Predict the 3D structure of the following.
Amino acid sequence: MIANKVGIVSTRIDTCRSSLFCSKNSSVSLHPTNAADRVLMDIQNSGIIACLRAKSAELAVEAARAALRGGISVLEITMSTPGVFEALQCLVQEYPSTSIGIGTVLDRREAKEAVDLGAKFLMSPAMVKGILSDVAEGQALYIPGAATPTEVLSASTDGAKIVKVYPVSVLGGVEYLAALKKPFPHIPLVASQGMTLDSVGAYICEGASAVVLSDAIFDKKAIAERNFLRIHHLACSAAARGNQAVSNIQDFLGCGLATSYVEDDNVL
């Protein structure tokens, strides 16, 4: 009985190790040569993309500052935020080395304006092929959305360096992401929709390069009450969880794997 349990644990660790090795070592080199690859490396190193929606540009900037001070290194501001480009321009000037991008981008005009104003990445809920071709030279990273295996493969084949699985919670959550990674271990995936702080580690262990956190950082009540200290604290927690998950990956890919076997064996 104990031997069977150890075998299950070992298989689980091997699966995690294998999918993470492929997802962390594809599409980006250790020495990125363009803006898109640098952002991709930032995303994979942090494990977190903070997604901000606000009712004004001023509120968005204040909330973003709180999150960035809390350790967030990849920030997305959605197109649904009034004055989104004003907020983008302000934040890019204040945080020139931070990966700040625009989300819910649905057409090429929006994408071009965002990149012209300094957006380092663009994200969509679906694939917009025109955007992908427009940034083919690597001036910005485009993260298209996909819901099915066919859409994931199509986006990657068309040139996407990383694909957002959306809406992942509705589709089956961690189990669905894990199922997608089995045929596509070489395609970096971002898990998006319905994410909580507690789910970060599980998604990354199952092969996600990162997770998108929205309300988990930019709590609606906190934003409405301008409680930026609350947002700062949530950002600190999110950044820490992302860092821990990425650190766990490094352990799985190194000597930490053997330690996990021993510890699990002792527990069982």
Observations:
- Residues 1-15, 17-21, 255-268 have pLDDT under 50 and may be disordered.
- The chain has one domain: 32-248.
- The longest strand covers residues 48-52.
- The CA atoms of residues 219 and 231 lie 7 Å apart.
